[in-house]
Amino acid sequence: MSRSPLVSANVFAGMAALGAVGVVASYLAVPPERFWANWLVWFLFVLTIGVGCLFIVALGHLVAARWSIPIRRAPERVSGLVLLALPMGLIALLSLPVLYPWTRPEALLKPAIAGKAPWLNVPFFSIRVLICFALWLFAYNLFTRGSVRQDQTKDPAFSVRARGFAPAFMIIFAFSITLVAFDWISSLEPEWYSDIFGVYLFAGTFLSGLASSALAVLYLKDRGRLPDVRNDHLYSLGGFMFAFTVFWSYIGFAQYMLMWYGNMPEEIFWYKQRIEGPWLNVILLLAAIHFFVPFFALVPKDRKNDPRNLRWVAMLMLTAHFLDLYWLVLPVVGASPPLSWPELSFALCFVGLAVLWVRRSMAMGADMPIGDPLLHEGLEFRA
Amino acid sequence: MTDRVFAVVGLFSSAQALMDAIPKVRARKLGTVEAYTPYPIHGIEDALGLRRSPLGGMVMVAGVLGAATALFFQWWMSAVDYPIVVGGKALFSWQAFVPIMFELTVLFATFTAGLGMLLLLNRLPFFSHPVLASKAIAGITRDKFALAIEADGGALDVDAASAALRAAGAADLEVLPVAVAQPPALNELSRSVMGIAISCLVAGYVMYWLIKLFPVLPPMVHMQEQPRLDVYKASELFKDGHGMQLPVAGTVARGYLPYLIESPEQAAALVNPLPRTSEVLQKGRTVWNNRCGVCHGALGNGVPTLTAAYGAKPANLQAQTFREYPDGKIYHVIMVGKNAMPSYAADLTDDERWAVVHYLRVLQRAQNAKDEDLK
Amino acid sequence: MASEAVSLPAALRAPVLVEGPVTLGGLDDQVLQYPARKPPLAWYIAFAITASILTLGVSLIGYTFYMGIGVWGNNRPVFWAFDIINFVFWVGIGHAGTLISAILFLFRARWRNAIARFAEAMTIFAVMCAGLFPLIHVGRPWLAFWLFPYPNQRALWTNFRSPLLWDVFAVSTYFSVSLMFWYLGLVPDLASLRDRTTSKVRRFLYTVLSLGWRGSATHWQHYEKAYLLLAGLATGLVLSVHSVVSFDFAVSLVPGWHMTIFPPYFVTGAIFAGFAMVVIVLVVVRETMDLKNLITTYHLDVMNKVILAMACLMGYAYVMEGFTAWYSMDEYLHHIFIQYISGTYGWSGWLTISCNVLIPQLLWFRWFRQRYLGMIFVSIAVTVGMWFERFVIIVVSLHQDYLPSSWHIYKPTLVDFGILLGSFGLFFTLVLLFARVLPVIATTEVKTILPGAQPAHGGGHHD
């Protein structure tokens, strides 16, 4: 039984087209820093959702979880966003001279930045970006395409191979997500450093992967395409979303509190930029929608498996993850959070594109990994 | 028949058998149906129609209360009652308060969950429930699953209940008489709380006296007994046991300068280093009035205020001899004394000595003034 | 079902958690026999050894109280040494128990049921050992109660901005919560003991301790809810307690300490060290108490996989620390990191990396995961490595920080070593007593995973 989609794909296509016009206009109209900062944020948003979904799939293989098998196709499909992130990332490389001080010779006069030149230089940076993409695409091919192929072949060898590759992927993921955090985000202000930053981005990445997977699962359930997925499975998803909301908040607070306590000039300037003046409103909003609201919305047990509750909490989480990236990146552009037609254009364009991309991936393979030999165990799972 | 019956209990040998029996027994509506199992059975709450546990809400409230309590007392203690700036941080340093807020949230929530579940919801500890005295209990905690039809207020139709249980597949049946004691009522609880409070008070009193005793026991008292030199006390640090010792030979006072000149003739070569300024002369006058005038007179003429009783005859410094003394010789007399006059070296600083020499010269000139001096 | 199991590759088959035909009653007989009977000679010998070591430790602590902290090796600038290393070490070891009993409960990992009880007991004992050190390392331990904010005549309050005070709250909360969680889990098992025992004294004791538990379904419902809530709360503690301990270091400005990764790094290290200790103890337990069918090779295998995963995370943390130290362009941080691997204590840095990252890589191989020799070797290496990691962090960073005129070498004294040994004596004495007196496996929880334990509803067993 399938009904016509709640929101037609044409709406998103229209959004994307309109947004694209605005994006091009802002390339011509607004200062390049603002344009490229927006591009960077949207690139990171799409990338982290894609890689986060890959992580979810790999984690399920790594720990031989049964409950996640029936809903595994959702993150497998959404992980296709890594393919959308690839051109966005290659274009983002054009932002290096605009956004990153270490590309400019005058910045190299500062010893704190000059010393990092062996790491922070355009060729090495680009190579790192390309290697990460190569590894992610390899993992995407192995996990997602392999799983879709298994629908037809029903060969358990894929499951064994996926389980074998999962630990290696975890190592790849740990270092690649750390590189994204250190290279794309923290090197915007190269004097600053924080070794938990990779873990911080991981937390947001995992959460946005969970949220987007939950939305995909609920989308399919609404259309009756996942009749065997019960509240027990949703409960586990909701539980993870709850737990990692707490985890993100813990990591975010730990970094902030340690830098507040030490109050060292070379660290605290980064926070001063982001919590003083107009940016204070942003961080308060972020704390509210990334911690307080999802925490209290998910704490009662029966709220964790209620589809309607999960849907709006998941959408809020994605918004919060975006706001997190916005808050991390945009302060280098201005003392005041920019919010006007350029930002809205970017939002229309990339939300539209991403939704269209994910919708298209909904046609990939069956709605459940029907070739997986342990699927029936996953369907029998009781919370 | 004579004893009031609490329940009829039937034993089953598997969880499946128990679950199959429950709807059959409940349908007979013979009384409250309760199950007793060695471990929790999934789905049994719905099968028995049990109300949902309110523990979640209780724990949430307790957790929020814990967070609020921690925030409040840290704020009050750090920003209101004992406001000290530590590490340059603001008095209401909420960032530093968060860890303890979190811990207290967990602590309050945990104790509410644990004790709330035991004391409030399950009314445990309770040792007089009829099931505990039954033969069935040994099986219940081991490997048997029991279904009980309990009398809810009125009398229980034992035969009908037994028949229902047997029909549902129960192996052993047992009739349980009513309990002697009731679950701890609220006033019993409050009596235990009172008892605890009294014990705390007694313990506190005992602790108070122990705490008074404790600091004078070693090693606590070691801080008071220190191997150091105390004022006016005997001391083991020195062989003679005295805390107060003479200074070592050769010790000099601060500001001491050695005076090596032996004869007035040598002293004659000394030159007055001080200028003849008004301050110096004032200082000299002060010194003269305090030290010298008592014997040599206010005008330096040997007419003193004191020595009539004293018997000595101080020199008249207005005499020709002394007017011809060079400054150095006068200084020498101050330093070593002359005849009955003792040394005044210890009483005067070097500046004061030379200043009084200048003043003496002023006195001498004043008493032997020439006409030209008035111009 | 059976034919599918045959056709599945071995790597995908579901693990067998309970080997052999075990009935509900048989399980009770197997596990609950121990509190009822006299222990074998080996237990007495072991107890004599651990109790003597404990006595040595206690005497040395008494000696320290009497003579003062000068009998330890602490000096300027190494003000923190064995005392804090041991504290962090023991608190860390406690975390494995909470992870197994709480976090794995939330993940519905059924393999935790057989080992949760012992792991939780080890948590409580480890936290007791840990709590010892902050108490004895202050100059006047009889005034340790000053750490608590109570209304006093000194007209002052404790310093809430200090992580040392956060530690007081965190460790005491952790101890109370672990104790509550462990005790609640014991109540149904104590009821089983009550109904089995023939001794009147023991029956009275078990009756009181089991609070009159009768297994009523109404009670189970509230009990399950409380257990779930406690598991969730204890999970929060696993993260927070060792993070607060890491704050002791990370909020300071000592080079090498002020690194933001410390909180999750310490938590990972804690789980790592704790699992190693659990593996060592469980190997001894399953052999001496003949529990191999309940604590199976699968249990050991999966715990070793957790140790391997943690070792990889520790490797990530070391790489991040090293990279960030270089990236920071801070000369003091550079110097300290060079001291970590060269200089007077360079050997300890290499020992740490070898024991914590390199040796556990052996666990990729099944032989090491499933053979006693392999896993005991790795677990001992991990325990040693984690102790030395704290040594490296504390002693090496302190002995050469900002001002070269203050630099000074640290040498531990025999009293330091004796007290460390004594803490192991305390831990293992408590473990032996626990194994003697209480059921080492939560029979109630294992009963729920025996085949046929739960009724079928709507198609299948509970996963």
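qc> The two ends of chain A are 27 Å apart (CA to CA).
qc> done
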